[in-house]
Automatic annotation (TrEMBL):
Protein name: Glycine cleavage system transcriptional activator
Naturally occurring in which organism (per UniProt): bioreactor metagenome
Pfam families, A to Z: LysR_substrate (PF03466)
Gene3D superfamilies: Periplasmic binding protein-like II (3.40.190.10)
Single GO biological process annotation from the record: DNA-templated transcription
Amino acid sequence: MLAEPERKLAVNELLNEFPLLHQSTRIKGWQEWFALSDVSSPLVNKGPRFDLLSMLIAAVRSNLGVALLPRFAIQHDLDSGDMVIPCDVPMRTGNRFIMTWREEKSESEHLQIFRNWLLSKSVVSAA
């Protein structure tokens, strides 16, 4: 994601023109993303690393570079035009979230409402 709405780039331009910002929990993210476009370079592993997704988003908003971000976290920025997707190379990570709760709370109406809402927002894949 890029906080320069007027810019659309080719994949190799992205690598050469902007610092790549990394999420420390997905350190191979850029390498995997560039591989989707058959681009390989030692530069894909360089750049600042951020422990928190919120810090990574703040860095992009401050024009410190580009980052691989989940759409749900920045959809408002995309809708408002404050951020753009500079290269249309979507990537599915295969990451999953698991909702857990204490057994004695299983019948909680609030829990069931939240669970149903969460499921309605989720994409379930047959993997």
